[in-house]
């Protein structure tokens, strides 16, 4: 199969964002390689869902991005690469910074080097970075207005010109990878683009307290489980519905010659900026349920407010979010009901059918 290069490769493709992106591409007739190490809760269920929806048109590979040889072989077969595979939680990076570094930096380096080795035939690479590359933004003036933080002088949010200030091992590893991807376009001429993402939420998200907090809150309400707010609940995030992100990613890849070498902030923007407490209140309103809400100390690297200024993405690609945060939360609750994910599950991976792993590793 080496040399065919008719697939689109999604690393971390069985995860939340990856499975939604894969579904959209497959639905439009593309052939997709989903590469995943199956280490996170819910990914086996997402892989099974993709198989059920698309059959042999989706090729599922159990592989870790730290395996340079195997990742390189998959990159060689691909016309485009969406590099989503990552260690994604700040808390996990604090516990095991070495593993965080290896996955986020070395894994990204392996993808880039595989593409570079192909020279003129190299696939375009879209990398999903994070707003954590801006750190705690201590140099930005923030004020508390009523029950929500706001920027004193950034009405539309944070632009790509904000000062980089990697904070936490996760911020460092994603930030370093971010810069590698950006520089490989400049130094080696690869067609790459970086998306610095804000809080993404939606279907196929098996959220936990550490990552995917919007879905985690919804599942906790259904399951009558307590919710913990780290900080004061007044912190603000611009949450973005998954379908809007997928649209932006596909637009960028479709115009890669225009956006190559560029970095974009991607989030819900000022129109979808909401407090953590506001998300909980809205979910309570939708579900008709309430649970105890506990307060805990701020966590390292937490920002009082983060809102993406999407102006550059709108200017270059004509993209802006279509889904309001209130409507998005309704969509999320509908999916939670439909998927029967009524309560947090300690380890979805442990509950998955072990036969699925063998199936996922097989090449049709």
Index terms:
364 residues, alpha/beta, Rossmann fold, seven-stranded parallel sheet, three-stranded mixed sheet, 14 helices, 16 strands
Write the layout of secondary structure elements.
Blueprint (H helix, E strand, L loop, with lengths): L6 E5 L4 H12 L3 E6 L6 H12 L3 E5 L5 H9 L1 E6 L6 H6 L1 H21 L6 E7 L11 E4 L2 E4 L16 H21 L3 E6 L2 E2 L11 H10 L4 E4 L5 E3 L1 E2 H13 L1 H4 L2 E5 L6 E3 H12 L5 E4 L8 E2 L4 H7 L7 H14 L9 H4 L3 H7 L3
Parallel strand pairs: 1-2, 1-4, 2-3, 4-5, 5-8, 8-13, 9-12, 10-15, 11-16
Antiparallel strand pairs: 6-7, 11-14
Helix pairs in contact: 1-2, 1-8, 3-5, 5-6, 7-10, 7-12, 10-12
Number of helices: 14
In N-to-C order, the SSE pattern is EHEHEHEHHEEEHEEHEEEHHEEHEEHHHH
How many beta-strand runs?
16
Strand order of the largest sheet: 3-2-1-4-5-8-13
Q: What is the rounded Rg?
A: 20 Å
- Major β-sheet annotation: 7 strands, parallel
CATH topology, which one?
Rossmann fold
Kindly state the mean pLDDT as a whole number?
91
The total domain count is 1
Find the structural class using helix and strand composition: alpha/beta
**Fraction of residues in H or I helices:** 40-55%
Going by CATH, the homologous superfamily would be NAD(P)-binding Rossmann-like Domain
Question: Judging by the overall fold, what is the CATH architecture?
Answer: 3-Layer(aba) Sandwich
What is the CATH class? Alpha Beta
Query: Strand content of the residues, in percent?
Result: 15-25%
Give the termini separation.
11 Å
Low-confidence stretches: 342-364
């Amino acid at each position: 199969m080496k040399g065919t290069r008719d697939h689109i490769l999604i690393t971390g493709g069985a995860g939340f964002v990856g499975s939604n992106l894969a579904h959209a591409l497959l639905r439009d007739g593309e052939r997709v390689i989903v590469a995943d190490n199956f280490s996170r809760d819910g990914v086996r269920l997402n892989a099974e869902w993709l198989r059920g929806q698309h059959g042999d048109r989706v090729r599922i590979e159990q592989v870790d991005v730290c395996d340079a040889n195997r990742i390189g072989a998959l990159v060689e077969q691909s016309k485009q690469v969406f590099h989503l595979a990552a260690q994604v939680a700040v808390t996990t990076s604090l516990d095991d910074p070495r593993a965080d570094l290896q996955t986020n930096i070395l894994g990204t380096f392996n993808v880039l080097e595989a593409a570079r080795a192909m020279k003129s035939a190299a696939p375009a690479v879209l990398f999903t970075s994070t707003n954590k590359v801006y750190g705690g933004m201590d140099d930005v003036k923030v004020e508390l207005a009523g029950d929500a933080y706001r920027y004193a002088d950034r009405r539309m949010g944070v632009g790509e010109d904000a000062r980089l200030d990697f904070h936490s091992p996760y911020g460092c590893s994603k930030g370093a990878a971010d810069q590698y991807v950006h520089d490989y376009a400049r130094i080696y001429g690869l067609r790459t683009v970086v998306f610095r993402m804000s809080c993404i939420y939606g279907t196929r998200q098996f959220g936990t307290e550490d990552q995917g907090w919007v879905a985690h809150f919804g599942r906790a309400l259904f399951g009558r489980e307590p919710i913990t707010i780290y900080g004061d609940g007044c912190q603000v995030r611009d949450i973005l519905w998954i379908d809007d992100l997928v649209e932006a990613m596909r637009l960028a890849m479709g115009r890669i010659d225009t956006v190559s070498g560029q970095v974009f902030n991607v989030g819900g923007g000022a129109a979808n900026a909401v407090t953590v407490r506001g998300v909980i209140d809205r979910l309570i309103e939708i579900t008709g349920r309430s649970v105890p809400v506990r307060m805990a100390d701020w966590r390292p690297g937490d920002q009082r407010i983060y809102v993406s200024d999407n102006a550059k993405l709108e200017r270059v690609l004509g993209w802006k979010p279509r889904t309001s945060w209130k409507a998005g939360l309704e969509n999320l609750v509908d999916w939670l009901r439909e998927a029967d994910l009524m309560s947090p599950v300690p380890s979805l991976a442990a509950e998955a059918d072990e036969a699925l792993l063998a199936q996922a590793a097989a090449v049709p």
